[in-house]
Amino acid sequence: MEQTQVKYGSYRWVVLVLFMFQVILTQFLWLNFAPIQPTIEKLLNITDFQFVLLLSVFNLSNLLFSLPVGAILDSKGFKFTVGVGSVIMAVAVLLRLRSDSYAWILAGQIGIAIAQPFIVNSGAKLASVWFNKNEEALANGFASMAMFLGMIAALVITPIIIQHMDLFHIIAIYDGVTVAGSILFLLFAKDNPSISTTVKKEEQVYHPIQAYKELFKIKDMIMLALIMFIGVGFFNGITNWLDKLLGPQGFSEEQSGIIVGILIAGGIVGAIVIPILSDLVKRRKPFLIVGTIAAGVFMYPLMHTRSYTTAIVLAAILGFLVISLLPIIFQMSIEIVGERLTGSATGMLWVFGATGAIITIYSIEAIANITSNFRDGIWVFMGMFLIAFLLSLLLKETYGRNNNKGTVKQ
Prior knowledge:
Helices cover 78% and strands 1% of the residues. It is built from 17 helices and 2 strands. The radius of gyration is 21 Å and the shape is globular.
């Protein structure tokens, strides 16, 4: 078959930045109300359950839409999929301008939650079609870093700005930035022109049901998905319940919030450093093994120390070694299935991740209700880490698999 050389021009960095901004916005809008829960509940006269619903719809959306979005990614491409998400998000945020109505704000959050997988789940596809083999892991790292940047921005900015303006003007500013970001993406982002014509021919014969059947038959993909289940479950569990887990050690809610921020900040640094190191040593598997070991080694003392400084150091190490494994997992999926099914593989991973998040959050709460002690939830984490460690040992090294970058068949 005829081969066409694939080119990776400098415009790939423009596309990556535009994409990262959209990812930052999705995560920001997910958590923008989280740090001001008492204020929101008072202004809207809502219960704790109603407030939690504003956040939990995002995990539910990931669970429901990740597989279909993966199919769209592999059949329609990166630009189309993220473009759809950007349009949905831009329209949804406008619903929140009725800032005195819980129903309208919830409707807006649901719309943003639907848009999120269209955008966030597209990072691995972007890396596979716009970046060469030696840059894929780094591109995945930047995409993952954008997720964590959006989270930290929401947790830091909103509590500050709420002291200086009312809820309507805060939402109006956030929504204006979101609409502008979506317009910029739609205007300037594009698919890699050197592969667009050949990929379109392949997209026409893509069969999503058959693709997912194939993925669920790949042993390494199943193990990687289970590790994603554990990793995302851990992240959501610890960020959701850390104040209650650390409370018995004498930490205040403010200190617990800072520790969560340090955890995420460690992940931001690691999301860039770990993929670079992985490419340098040409290995993925050792980083998964080290990360799963580190999770158990550093999580246990974090749950028992009474030193605020020690807790901060432990959280930073956890974030750097564990949370930063997200881009490695995405990169391994590319290397297992090839760029043709990258979107479907990512969708599969996020379905497992969203399921892990929901199950972990409610499992810890259920254990606390039975034992009257949230600290018993640590054993959920420790059991998860042990399973993740065993799975990482069983995984085969993926570096160098499907190493056919540079040409596209036509």
